Enoyl-[acyl-carrier-protein] reductase [NADH] (Paenibacillus algorifonticola), 256 residues
Amino acid sequence: SGMMNNKKIVVMGVANERSIAWGIAKSLHREGAQLIFTYRKERSFEKLKGLLEQTGITPLLTVSCDVLDDESISAAFAHIKEQAGSIDGIVHSLAFSDKDELKGEYLETSREGYLLAQNSSAFSLVAIAKQAKGVMSEGGSIVTQSYIGAERVVKNYNVMGVAKAALEASVRYLAEDLGKYNIRVNAISAGPIKTLSAKGVSGFNDIMQTIEERAPLRRNIDQEEVGDATLFLLSHLSRGITGEVLHVDAGYHILG
Ligand code: 0WD
């Protein structure tokens, strides 16, 4: 323990115990980080409180933040700055699309569905990164969560794949803009994990089975593995890395 001692990290996107953000929170806690959580829905806040109690984790702060709302974002980060002072990292682990867009053909994507997915899943990182500049006075690290649907056509992933492509491109542009402040920006591209959000993707179980059969490691990955890789990108160990997309997918992405 201790890699993250005295580091304050904001974790966004814990909906329940299966959330990737919760796997990340556990890795960070193990290494001594002080955690600040943001949540959107009241239901998630209740889940989060339960999880924190169960695991004996005392958060530095829990703040409500809806990434679709600029006022909510600026209020959340003003509150964080006031209560916690300067912070060292932000975990952006959220995305949203209407379920109806995550099946059938991408060609059928509606304008509204496209804009909502981009807004929630890609622009949200830009909005958060803008805030980071003001609260990371000594530099820091921002890590977001992507998926291979950004790079390749994954059946049914559709509009979310296009949003993840924008997210990964945003990681590179933001890394350039924030590098001069010693703020790094990276993404994890995780293999499929059964979470609340994953339930919305049609044919998700088939994807998981394909990974088990074909990925170099012949298995799926879990929240704890994403948690540890995210921990690395938030820590001093990754200080020379920015603008990167790191695959935590049992090697699946190397296959043709
Ligand atoms: O297989 C998977 N599960 C993968 C997920 C593989 C690769 C990547 N990812 C990504 C997701 O696309 C997402 O970016 O990881 C990230 C986290 O996903 P998850 O852990 O699978 O999802 P989930 O447990 O459902 O949590 C997502 C949270 C929910 O929290 P709330 O409090 O709203 O229930 O993101 C939230 C979502 O609702 N979220 C928002 N939070 C604040 N403001 C917003 C928003 N506007 N929209 C969605």
In short: The chain has one domain: 8-248. The beta strands are 8-12, 34-39, 61-64, 89-92, 140-146, 183-190, 245-248.
